[in-house]
Amino acid sequence: MKIGYMLCFAGSGLLLASHVYGQQNTSQVLQTGNTNEAAVTQTGTGNASEAAQTGNRNGQNVTQVGYYNQQEGTQTGNRNLVSVLQGSASEAKAWATQTGNDNRIRQQQTEVVAGTEARATQTGNRNAISQEQTSRLGSHALLATQTGNDNRVTQVQLGYGQVGTALQTGNANRSTQNQYGGRSMTTYVEQLGDYNVSRQEQSGRNLDGRISTTGDGNRAEQNQFGTEQNALITQLGDDNRARQEQSGTRVNATITQLGDANRSVQTQANEDMRATATQTGNRNRAEQTQANSTGTNVGVSEATIEQDGDQNRARQQQNGSRNTATIEQDGNQNTARQRQDGFYDSATTYQTGTEHFSSIVQTGGGANNASVYQGGVGQSSVIEQTGAVNRATVHQDHP
């Protein structure tokens, strides 16, 4: 066994430990300050580690087992900690950068192959990032950036062809991204503000989940299980809540919240569905559930909700295929409900004004059509269609 080499540049009062076993491994440590610690253990061939510490009481613990892995850790500040494990890995790369005090970064790459990368950057105090990558089948990529204080990011990848990105600017934000099994999956989160929380879970193939939050106290969640799924959440305001649940194939969901204290939930199962919910205002509620049938009549069903005002309520439920449902609310305290159980059904509700109520139920058969327009104050409309090729229209204007 040939011993690799280590370069060390250290000031007085510093602690350093390094163990290098294998061929052509390299370790370089540069320390400026007091009571900093760096421990590097390398087993294998061609591994490289670089540690730079400026400040006091910083720590780096690096273990490399495998071939041609690369690791770089840079710390500027006090009491920061970096922990890196590259176990049974080949050509993996990990970068960690900390500027501030009391930050924590944990990076674990086990049984991974060339092209797997993890990058973590922290600017501020008391931030924490945990990144875990495992799989021999293909490469992964993780990126986490924190600017502010007391932020948390957790990222896990157990598959291949996976990409995860988490960007936090502000204080006390939380982001969790879990990609389990499968391939060709992307998660993206951007949080700008304070006390925002996001969670993304993926398992399957060709999945794309994205969350963008600007404001304080928002919550966003995406769960994707299946193939060919797209989910997007955009929040601009405070105290909004959004959740998307997807299972099946070829489904798309979009939530946009502009205002405060809005709530939106989308649930999609089976095949070929699109759901869109847009809320502009405060304390609005939107719920969309799609469960298309399978078989010869399968086609895209679409559900759309647009709310402009305050305290509006909208709920859509679709079972079947090739159905279209639309709710538009322009005003305050309006309520609209739509249910479709069939094929080629169409339902449209348009409410302007205040305190309207509308309900459309289409069951059995198919090719039913119902439309409602209400203006003024306090109008009420109920349509129920059972069978096929029925037509109903309600128009209620100013009283």
UniProtKB/TrEMBL annotation:
Region ranges (Disordered): 198-224, 240-338
Domain of life according to the entry: Bacteria
Biased segments, Polar residues type: 245-299, 314-337
UniProt keyword Signal, yes or no: yes
CC per GO annotation: pilus
Record keywords, A-Z: Signal
InterPro entries hit by this protein: Curlin_rpt
Signal peptide: 1-22
GO biological process assignments: cell adhesion
Recorded family membership: Belongs to the CsgA/CsgB family.
Protein name according to UniProt: Curlin associated repeat-containing protein
Originating organism: Hymenobacter jeollabukensis
Species lineage: Bacteria, Pseudomonadati, Bacteroidota, Cytophagia, Cytophagales
